[in-house]
Every structure is written in structure tokens, then in C-alpha cells.
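Residues pack. Consider this:
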Amino acid sequence: MQVPGVTAASANTLFVAFIASDSGQGPARGGPPLDGKIQSVDGGNLTWTRRAEAHLSITGEPSIAEIWTAFSPVPVKPFTVTVTRNNDNGALTYCDNYEGASGPDIANGMVLVQAITGADPKNPVGATAFYGVGPKSGRPGPATITITTTRRDSLVAAVGSDWSDPKPRTMPAGQVMLHEDVSTPNGDTYWVQGLPGAVATPGPATLSVTNPTNDDCNMAAVEVLRAP
């Protein structure tokens, strides 16, 4: 999967890649194992680091939700972020969602890249979290994740992957949808949500949806630390 045209006009920019993907169709339908994860993220001659991951072996849910980051101390010209998945069939996206043809090795997905200025250059990422919810994991209910922030004025966001239902998410008051892909041909929904402003006091912060209430989902969350 690819996202072109990523850039930073300012120094000290943190790039955050929110990645959501179906794990494929699985051995029962002739595909690879469902316990996939992201192999690598590349782009901009930067060092990309996996910060949070949720997939089958961790949560009991077979979709993929991961967060990767890279920090640039200087402005960078437009570049392409390339995400390689386990069991990837080589298909690329030039927006944010790939809707593949039928076949056992096709797994669609979403990549949203945010460029955040003002992050702490020495320690831009604080807490992370992951969670799975739904009948498969034995934790039925709406998608939700709680992250315990470590510093005042942090930014918090999460990525979600619902492989069981192509349905828009309904957000509770005080939270914002940053991006959403409803992939009807594949029966999936991928989204990124966050809090509308900085978290004033360190402590637990919960990101959730109010509907749907009984889907199989994975979520991963990250805290971005502002420069002191």
C-alpha cells in the first residue's frame, strides 16, 4: 500500500502512519494464515518505528491495526510512504484504500499519514495501547480502547479495523473522526479517530464508538508528546 505526496514544510515533524487492514481470507478459503502483521514502512529516507500493533495472536481478532512513526528534524520534500504487509500480493493504493479483486491472497487496507509539528524532538511518542473487541475475542461490545497518557497537553489518536461489517462508525460526543473508509466490496471498515484537543491532565483517555455495537474489531492508539 502506498501514500504519495507526504511532506513537511517545518522542522521537527513527526509522521504518524495509521494502518488498518484485513488479514485476508485464511487457509479455510485457500489463503495464507490470518495472523498477519505489517512487515515494514518506508519513505522519505526516514527511520520508521512500529509503535503499536493489534492482530490475531495479540487480541484474538484477525484484522490488523498498527501505528508507525518517523521523525524528521528538518523539512522534507514530498515523498511516498510504502507499507508492506505479510502475505501482501503486491497491490498498491494511491489514495488511502485499496479494494482488491477477488482471490485468496487479496487483503485490502487503509493508510492515513499525519504530519504533526511541535512534537518533542527527543521523545515524540509516549504511551501506546492495543485492544480487540467482538465475538471472536470474547469481548462483545462497541469498539473501544483506553490509553494512559504520560504528559500534559498530549495528543491522542487511534486506528480501528473492522473486518466483519462495512458500516460507518458513530462517534460519541467529544471525539472526532479523522478518516474513515467503508469498503463495501470487501465487507470491512477502517477508521482513525482522536480527541479534538490536547489532553490537559495525564491519565486514562478512552476512544470509542457508539455504533456498531457487536462487530469484530482491532484498535491501536498512540500518545504524541508535545515539545516541553
Notes: DSSP finds one helix and 15 strands in the chain. Confidence is low (pLDDT under 50) at residues 88-106. The helical segments are 56-59.
